[in-house]
């Protein structure tokens, strides 16, 4: 059973999402929140597996709420799936940086919602690698973006660095396994260790870090 917390300041959208989830077997709506403050409080009480988080809300926005939810649950925190109107949204990028696992456009067809939640609950990113790169490149290529800094990467082994680079390029675990000629389980082990060493909470964060540290350059395919 996948436990879901629905957060949106628009009552019709929130009610529609909750109704769709409740009607599906294997899913449970553990709460509905109309703002970020309510989301943080409900997440602490209900312990959801996935939070559908509206990103643009008055008072406490989805980015700050995401930070507080993840910080408040250091052991097995919920996955955050951001709800947004535009795919190239600076707020989405910031949400990924603080630990969200992906994003879902509000005009996504209803039949894609449940598979999206399932995907996030399983620990994957929701969006395709091309979307990941397009989103991250759009904001890391700005003049005030964080410049290359490999200091944080010094704690990684050579193989962990290879895995992080390939993740940052948008490859899936199976694609990385094929590239490095190892098992998919081995890739997962290296990635989990990498994320633990770098204090990352999601695969999306790993992608962003790869760009911000200069491990992967916008518009350039890195070959190993």
Automatic annotation (TrEMBL):
* CDD domains, A to Z: LuxR_C_like, REC_NarL-like
Check the record and name the InterPro entries matching this protein.
CheY-like_superfamily, NreC/VraR/RcsB-like_REC, Sig_transdc_resp-reg_receiver, Tscrpt_reg_LuxR_C, WalR-like
Transmembrane stretches in the record are none
Query: Keywords in UniProt for this one?
Result: DNA-binding, Phosphoprotein, Transcription, Transcription regulation
List residues, modification 4-aspartylphosphate.
54
The keyword Transcription regulation is assigned to this record? yes
In this chain the Response regulatory domain maps to: 3-121
PROSITE patterns for this protein: HTH_LUXR_1 (PS00622), HTH_LUXR_2 (PS50043), RESPONSE_REGULATORY (PS50110)
Looking up Pfam families in the UniProt record yields: GerE (PF00196), Response_reg (PF00072)
**All residue ranges annotated as the HTH luxR-type domain in the record:** 149-214
Any keyword rRNA-binding? no
Q: What is this protein called?
A: Response regulator transcription factor
Q: Which organism is it from?
A: Micromonospora sicca
């Amino acid at each position: 059973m996948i436990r879901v917390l629905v957060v949106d300041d628009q009552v019709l959208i929130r009610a529609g999402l909750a109704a769709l989830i409740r009607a599906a077997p294997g899913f449970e709506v553990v709460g509905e929140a109309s703002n970020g403050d309510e989301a943080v409080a409900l997440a602490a009480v209900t312990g959801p597996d996935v939070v559908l988080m509206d990103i643009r809300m008055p008072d406490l926005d989805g980015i700050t709420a995401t930070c507080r939810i993840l910080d408040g649950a250091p052991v097995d925190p919920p996955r955050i799936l951001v709800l947004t109107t535009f795919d190239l949204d600076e707020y989405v990028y910031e949400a990924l940086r603080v630990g969200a696992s992906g994003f879902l456009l509000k005009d996504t067809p209803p039949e894609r919602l449940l598979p999206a939640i399932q995907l996030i609950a399983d620990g994957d990113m929701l969006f395709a690698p091309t979307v990941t790169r397009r989103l991250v490149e759009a904001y890391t290529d700005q003049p005030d973006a964080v410049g290359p800094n490999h200091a944080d990467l010094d704690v990684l082994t050579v193989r962990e660095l290879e895995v992080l680079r390939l993740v940052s390029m948008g490859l899936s675990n199976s694609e990385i396994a094929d590239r490095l000629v190892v098992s998919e389980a081995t890739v997962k082990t290296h990635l989990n260790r990498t994320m633990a060493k770098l204090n990352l909470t999601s695969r999306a964060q790993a992608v962003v870090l790869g760009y911000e540290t200069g491990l992967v350059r916008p518009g350039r395919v890195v070959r190993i």
